[in-house]
Amino acid sequence: MPVLPYVLEKPLPVPGFKVGSASCGVKSADLKGKRQDVTLIVADVPAQAAAVFTQNAFRAACVDLGEKTVREHATDIRAIIANAGNANAGVGEMERVWSQQLIDLGADAAGVESHQVLSASTGVIGEPFPIERIQDAIGEASTSLSEDNWMQAAEAIRTTDTFAKYASRQFEVFEQNISGKTYTITGVSKGSGMIHPNMATMLGFIATDAPIRTEILQDILSKVADVSFNSISVDGDTSTNDTVYLLSSGLGLGDTELEDTSAFEQALTEVAIELAQLIVRDGEGVTKFISIEVSGAESEKQARDLGRTIAVSPLVKTAFAGSDANWGRIIMAIGNSGSFIQSDKVSIKADDVLILKDGNLHPDYTDARGMAVFAKQEFTLAVDIGLGDASATVWTGDLTHDYISINAEYRS
Amino acid sequence: MPVLPYVLEKPLPVPGFKVGSASCGVKSADLKGKRQDVTLIVADVPAQAAAVFTQNAFRAACVDLGEKTVREHATDIRAIIANAGNANAGVGEMERVWSQQLIDLGADAAGVESHQVLSASTGVIGEPFPIERIQDAIGEASTSLSEDNWMQAAEAIRTTDTFAKYASRQFEVFEQNISGKTYTITGVSKGSGMIHPNMATMLGFIATDAPIRTEILQDILSKVADVSFNSISVDGDTSTNDTVYLLSSGLGLGDTELEDTSAFEQALTEVAIELAQLIVRDGEGVTKFISIEVSGAESEKQARDLGRTIAVSPLVKTAFAGSDANWGRIIMAIGNSGSFIQSDKVSIKADDVLILKDGNLHPDYTDARGMAVFAKQEFTLAVDIGLGDASATVWTGDLTHDYISINAEYRS
């Protein structure tokens, strides 16, 4: 059961973009017609593009090709084609051929050139890619293209995700030529195993009509990815295919370039954090959603690395699962971060319950008070290492029997 | 159920050492008299000492004190006192006081000076240390001192270990003054959670009568620890207290210093690897024992780091648990090692079944053949990254429901 105590708001259409999907039976032929598994996002005009990719040294061909396309054609992107069910990774020499064929199919379906198309594949690694099944059914994606189909796109990129993930924000701009104009950002994402900083088996596609050119988009996306997609962890594993694409139609639609991108950056940060948190909320086997706020670090990177070390520790995650305020495991994880730590400067709080203050157990702390917080479905673990002023937040879930069942008993 | 398809041989006595134990109820008073939880190892003569300690930045006081004692008195060590049930870690200002008191109790019980005593504590982190209960019962450890008590020592340092771990080797020396003499090495160890390279919640005490002085002992122990205790992983967590002590009585007993220590190093390596492997075999929830042999690396460190990355991946470990030859997860883990990897040079074998050859699935490989290996209780995963001549082996287990139960449902 995902940790989703609220209902997602319907994603907003983004001027300049249409979305369609198809049911191709990518994972196995008998799924054809049963679930949507190919997504097509089409820009009516040349879009400005930005991207962040997996840090895994084994990168799937779609990542290599996507990076090349963004590098060479970042002001002229017209479509994204994505499939679930097969990652087209680890399959040797055919991988690049199949990946290019998928791009060509996307170009045909969108009525654009292949060099204008980005692709992404997610699913099982190491199995032959069923390009013919996609070819047979990709027509559905073209005929279903609509401004209002973002929810279907979110649906069609799911693998083991239990719900479709999407988020939208709007912001208003007050500049000389475009006073009072409202722009939209809509994104979709998918998890849910191999989730870890540096882009896990994670796809994110974000579209906006804000008129911003590629160089600035890329700077903003790289910055935003650090505090969103790179700040979540389900199991510490990072996949071969992780990709976030950000496309902007605004300049293509004839709008004047934004001078001040701060409202855009703020809205994009909110969209990206929401999409990233949804991945944790739907993490394999996750029953709890924990925010780990690290402060007192000497750099944001130190804070984030420390948060990640806590977030991936199996002993910490099983303590979360067991509602056990076993803070000994938390200091163990802090000590393992590889950072310089002064144990007598470390303080730990769970929600409003102070556990450790400057390395000593707080006199008011009792196991019962700690347990009351750890029993909650959502709580915040605040760790202050007392060395500097930098901070970062990492979001994670617990490690449960269901994670084992999902990953030991099925091939995902 | 541990993966232990053989019966351990009884540990051999080591000239110059006596061992005793006591039941103090360290973890809780009602365990007193029910299980042995304090161990005393006494050298009849000043012993030469060497040590390796946890790399965790949160180090327990016993580690700090032990390191200081080895630095200052490495040629004059007379005892080790160790307790299970409480790690005396993360308890703030009293930690060092209690740790020193434990050493003082050990010195009294052994009839030696405090500066000649090393200590180690293992068990739950963050709970007050019951020094009075140890004081009350430590007498039992002195009265039970005997050359033949190594098995009891192994028993008394257990925490969640399901069996006592010990190993012995003997080797013969042919040198001018000591031709044909046989020396003994006997060691005990304990696991079994927080097990990871760089000394996990792991204790190892090894004694020998081989006449070797401290500097050489330390060099050899550091080298041996890398290929044994630092080459195992249960869950990727590293504890605050991990310690391996190596004591030698030989010089104190009046033997001439060994000129050639190669036979000793070989025997010590065997003892240390056996003690380390026993920890994996008894890892929390472990049902399989997997040797990960990495070759073709540019350095031994690269090979070992790569092996560790594979060994700690939850997705790989759950695939082991599920007997699923999901080699896609293995290449994912290889890609996450942080090393430079050329995917078209990577080959993977499970026992004698070649899966991947130079980045391509081997034509003879079938899922059924892979599954047949992954279904075994013990197997070897050989990964060749095709870049150089260095290699290393790492041992690990699978990640199962029992690991979750042990760590989510009990406070360990």
CATH homologous superfamily identity of the largest domain in chain A: L-amino peptidase D-ALA esterase/amidase
Largest Cβ-defined interface: A-B, 62 and 63 residues
By CATH, the topology of the largest domain in chain A is L-amino peptidase D-ALA esterase/amidase
The assigned structural class of chain A equals alpha+beta
Reported CATH architecture of the largest domain in chain A: 4-Layer Sandwich
Which stretches of chain A are low in confidence, meaning pLDDT under 50 for 5 or more residues running? 194-200
Q: Mean pLDDT across all residues of chain A, rounded?
A: 91
Name the overall outline of chain A. Answer: globular
Could you name the CATH class of the largest domain in chain A?
Alpha Beta
Compute the separation of the termini of chain A in Å. 18 Å
Fraction of residues of chain A in helices?
A: 25-40%
Proportion of strand residues of chain A: 15-25%
Determine the oligomeric state from the structure: homodimer
Number of domains of chain A: 2
Question: Could you give the order of the helices and strands of chain A?
Answer: EEHEHEHHEEEHEEHEHHHEEEHEEH
Could you give a quick summary of the protein structure above?
The structure is a homodimer of 412-residue chains. Chain A has 412 residues and is α+β, with helices and mostly antiparallel strands.
Account of the 3D structure:
Two copies of one chain form a homodimer. Chain A is an alpha+beta fold. The first copy, chain A, folds into two domains: 17-281, L-amino peptidase D-ALA esterase/amidase; 289-409, Ubiquitin-like (UB roll). The first copy, chain A, contains eleven helices and 15 strands. Chain A has helices at residues 61-73, 94-110, 131-143, 150-156, 214-227, 262-281, 300-312, 314-321, 327-335, 367-374, 401-409, and strands at 17-22, 38-53, 77-83, 117-121, 165-173, 181-190, 203-208, 232-233, 243-248, 289-297, 347-350, 353-357, 360-361, 378-384, 390-397. In chain A, strands 1, 2, 3, 4, 5, 6, 7 and 9 form an eight-stranded mixed sheet that branches. Chain A has a seven-stranded mixed sheet with strand order 8-15-10-14-11-12-13, with helices on both faces. In chain A, a hairpin with a 2-residue loop joins strand 12 (353-357) and strand 13. Chain A starts with 16 loop residues before the first strand and ends with a helix. The model of chain A is unreliable at 194-200 (pLDDT under 50). Chains A and B meet through helix 8, helix 9, strand 13 and helix 11 of A and helix 8, helix 9, strand 13 and helix 11 of B.
